[in-house]
Amino acid sequence: MQKPFSIALVGNPNSGKTSLFNALTGLNQKVGNFAGVTVDKKTGLCPLRNGETVQIIDLPGTYSLYPKSQDEQVAYDVLLDSNNPDKPDMAIVIADASNLKRNLLLCTQIMDLNIPVIIVLTMMDIAKTKGINIDIAELQRHFGVPIIAANPRRNKGIEELKKTIEDLRKQKYSSRIGFIDIQSLCGDWIGEAKSIAQASSDYAALHLCCQLPDVPFLHAAQRMQMAAEMGEAKFHKSKIQGEEILWRYRKIADIIKKCVQEETPMQKALRSEKIDKVLLHPLYGNIILLVVLFLLFQSIFSFSTYPMDWVEMAFSWLSATLSNILPQGLFADLMINGVLAGISGIAVFIPQIMILFGCITILEDTGYMARISFLTDRLMRSVGLNGRSVMPLISGMACAVPAIMAARTIQNKKERLITILVTPLMSCSARLPVYTILIGLVIPSKSFLGFFNLQGLVLMGLYLLGFAMALVVSKIMDLFIKVREKTYFLMELPVYRAPRWKNVGITMVEKAKIFVRDAGKVILVISIILWVLSSFGPPQKMRELEQKYATLQQLQPTRTVQLNNEFATEKLANSYAGIMGHAIEPAIKPLGYDWKIGIALITSFAAREVFVGTMATLYSVGDSENIDASLREKLAAARWPNGKPVYTLGTGVSLLLFYVFAMQCMSTMAITKRETGSWKYPIIQFVYMGILAYAFAFAAYWILA
C-alpha cells in the first residue's frame, strides 16, 4: 500500500498548532502513539481543494530541534530519521506572530533539513493589539518560502493554506532550501559526515553529530566513522550549537527589522514590567498568590450555593414523582434507589466543577498562571524540582491523568519522575464532591468579618495541605533518587491580557460535559452493581429476615412504618454489600468509619467521586421512609448501633484527610505505569499514599473524637 503524502505540523508550544490541526482535519482524526514511545500521536486526513487527501501529523510542540524532553525527542526523530514511518514529505511550521523572533528560529532550522516548508502565522490579532505590523510579502521574499496568515479558530486562511499546499506539491513555488551556510559554520568535514550518515543536508548531519550517542537509527560503523571525523575536526558540541543559534538570531533580527514594524514597544514593556514588579515580588507576589487562591476557593462555595440547591430540589422532586408514578417493585427500586440516587449524588456538584475550571481558565488567559510557575521556582528547586513541575501540579487540580502526561516537558529524568509520583497528592476535581459533602456536613457555615467563610477556608486548607505534602514527599524522594544531571528553568512570560470570556464560558461547559460523561458512566455502572449487591443477599438469610418481619407485622400492626424501616436497614446490613462492608469494618473502625463508609472506600477506587454516588445509593436502599430527603440530611441522621451519630467532626475530618492523601484512582495508576514504563512506580504511589492517608485519618479521628 502506497504511503499517503504526509505533512508535519511543527511549532512552539501554545502557538496555535492544535487549532490548525483541528481546522485542517475536522473529525477525520485518530490518536495513537509514536513508535517505541508513549507520546501521543495525532494524525488526520485533510481534503484539498483539488479532491486529493493528505495526511496531517501533529508533532509535539518544541522550541528548537535540540531535544530536551521526551516530546521534543519525538519531533527530532520524525524529522531527522529518513527511515521513520512518520517522516513527512512537507512541513507546515506554525509561528506566533506576536512573538515572531523566537518562533522563526525553529522555522529556519527545519528549512535547513531540506524539507519543503510553509510558514503559517497565527495570533495575528494579538500581534495587532501589541502594535506589531508584519509585511508578509516582504517576509516571504526574504525567507524564500510561502507564508500564510491564518486564524484557525475562525477558519480564516485555511482555504489559502490548502491551495498553497497544492501549489508547493506541484512545485509552483521555488521553495528555498537552506537558511544559513552550515559548511561556513563547521568546516568542510561536515560534508563528509553527511555522506557517512546519508543525511538529507549538512544541517541534518550536524544534528546527528551533536546527538551521536543517542541516535538510534545509525549503525555501529557509521557511528565510528562519524566519531573519527568529529575527533579530527576537534568538534565541540556546545560551541557549535551556541554559534549556530547566534547566527540564526542575527539573520532573523536583520529580516525582522526590514519586515516588521512595532509601535511603542517600550511603553508596553514598561507597563508589563511595572505589573510584574508587584506580582513577582518575593514577598508581595506570594501574598497576592495566596489571596488569589483564597478567592478561588471562596467562590467555589459562595457562587455555587443557589445552583446546587436547585439541582438538589430537582432530583428530590424527581425521586418523589417517580415513586408515585412507578408501580412498586424491583424496577422502581432500581430506578429510584439505584440509578437516580447515584447520579443525583454527583450531579449536584456540577456548578462547583464549572466554577473551578472557569477560575483556572481565567488565570491561564490573563497570563497569571505562568507567573505562578515563576514565583514557585525557588520553592520547587529546594525540594528537587523546578518551575516546570508547577504546571503539572497545578493541572493536577483538574485531573491527575493529563497532569502526569504534562510532565513530559520536564527534561530532567529525576525531576520528571518525582513530579509524576507526587502529582496525585494535588486535590483534583474528582475530590471536590467528597470535600463539599463532608465539609457541608461537619464544618459549620460561619463567616468572619461578613466575608471570610469557614467552609471556604477549610476547602482551601485541604488543597494547600495536598500541595505541602507533595513538597515534603518530593524532598524525601530527592534524597533517595540520585541523578547528577542539572537543569535550569527558563520561560518567557506572556503578556497580560483580559480573559476571553467566551473561551471561559465554553471551557466551563465543556469541562462539565466531560465530568458528567466520564464520571456519569462509572457512577451509573457502579450504582447499578451496588443496588444489586445492596438489595440481595444470601437467600437463606433473606428468607429468615422476611419471615421475621412478616411475623412482627402481624403481631404489631400499629408499628408498620417503623418495622418497614427496620427491615430495610437490616436487609441492607445482611446483603452482599453489607457483608463486604462488615468484613473490612475492623480495619477502618479505628478511623471512625462504619461498614457503609467501607463500601464507599472500595467502590471509589474506580474514581474518587464515586464515594458520593455510593453513599447516595446505600442510604437510599437502606431508607424506605425519607425518599425525598437530600443525601446530606440522610448522612446527618446516620447512627451507630448505640445511637451515636456516625458523622461527627472527628469522622468527617478523618474522611477529608483520607481523601486528600489516598490513591483512589485506577486511571491515575494506569497513566503512571504508561509514562514510567513500569508497574513499580504506581505501586510505590499506592503504598506511600495509602500509608499517609491511614496515618493522618487515624490521628485526626483520635484527636477530634
Helix-strand blueprint:
Elements: E1 6-11, H1 17-25, E2 29-33, E3 40-47, E4 53-58, H2 70-80, E5 90-96, H3 100-111, E6 117-122, H4 124-129, E7 132-134, H5 136-143, E8 147-149, H6 158-169, H7 182-186, H8 189-197, H9 202-210, H10 220-232, H11 237-259, E9 260-262, H12 265-279, H13 284-302, H14 305-325, H15 330-347, H16 350-366, H17 368-382, H18 390-395, H19 400-406, H20 413-422, H21 432-442, E10 447-448, E11 452-453, H22 454-480, H23 501-535, H24 539-555, H25 560-573, H26 576-588, H27 595-603, H28 610-621, H29 631-637, H30 649-661, H31 666-676, H32 680-704
Parallel strand pairs: 1-4, 1-5, 5-6, 6-8
Antiparallel strand pairs: 2-3, 3-4, 7-9, 10-11
Helix pairs in contact: 3-11, 5-11, 8-9, 8-10, 13-16, 13-22, 14-15, 15-23, 15-28, 16-23, 19-31, 20-22, 21-30, 22-30, 23-28, 24-25, 26-27, 27-28, 30-32, 31-32
